[in-house]
Amino acid sequence: MNRAIGILVIFLFCSCAVEQSFAIKVTGTPGLKFSGSLCLTTIDGKVTTKSVDGIVPADYALEGTIVSVVFQKQSEEGKLKIEILKNGNIVNCSETIAAYGVVSITSQ
Length: 108
Hints:
The protein has 108 residues and is mainly beta. It contains 1 helix and 8 strands.
């Protein structure tokens, strides 16, 4: 019985921890400047952070197990909206209209 439980645990771990295709979609007020970071965790536990300076609209493509996004508006006016898509499906979404507002979301 212990062996069966061990095999089940290994199966569950292996089936859950697979690399996924993520798309980060940045929308809102066209021409709005933003900055921040993309943080990606891969299947082997490696964490990579990339600094970003961008202009709405923008798209980013990543491969990994978990992705986190923190972007800040670089002005008082406008809307900044971030969507995280995994394998084409929206898994998280957030937006701000606050002056110099921050959007912080993760794929989990």
